[in-house]
Write a structure and sequence with these properties.
eight-stranded mixed sheet; Aminopeptidase; alpha+beta; 33% strand
Length: 178
């Protein structure tokens, strides 16, 4: 299912496509951006293209938006992945040069509006590394609550890592956004 185009005050979120690999390679090869990611920094654009195969496939049952200013160059992405009936997982990545400008909050908010208002989900969850303070702060700002701490959950390029599980219910999103 192709992700519908979503517009915010500053952003256009559109379906992620394989041709976004060139724009996303510098992001996915950035050691700082990828530090808490489940895989290490990419070394070649072909690796990014291969990584995007599933994310960009509109027939895999998820919604994956490229975060852009104008609908053209991807600055990152937001993805909603079905886990159970009424329950999707949120994922996101953004170029480091745009951190701290509210763009991730804006993009994820648009995806959450779509999730709760259009898809009528009851819950969206996210997981993050316990040391990823930026992601934890972003999720809390969006109204997510920490629901769990999974020990030794991920084996990553920086070793075996714990995972914090955050959840947001439809009723909580409505009350936080009006």
């Amino acid at each position: 299912m192709t992700a519908p185009t979503l517009r915010t005050e500053r952003l256009v979120l559109r379906q992620l496509v394989l041709d976004d690999a060139a724009a996303l390679f510098p992001i996915l090869s950035d050691d700082t951006v990828m530090h808490y990611w489940s895989s290490g920094p990419h070394r070649h654009e072909d690796e990014t293209r291969e990584y995007l195969q599933w994310n960009a496939d509109p027939d895999c049952g998820h919604h994956c938006w490229a975060i852009t200013f104008t609908g053209e160059k991807a600055l990152g992405w937001v993805i909603l992945i079905p886990r159970r009936t009424g329950n999707f997982e949120l994922g996101y990545i953004l170029a480091r040069e745009f951190w701290g400008q509210g763009l991730a909050t804006e993009a994820i908010s648009a995806a959450l509006d779509f999730a709760f208002r259009t898809l009528k989900l009851r819950r969206v969850m996210a997981d993050t590394d316990p040391e990823n303070n930026g992601s934890i702060a972003l999720l809390r700002k969006l109204g997510f609550r920490q629901e769990g701490h999974l020990r030794a959950e991920w084996e990553t390029h920086i070793g075996v890592r714990d995972s914090l599980i955050f959840g947001l219910l439809q009723s909580e999103w409505r009350s936080s956004t009006g």
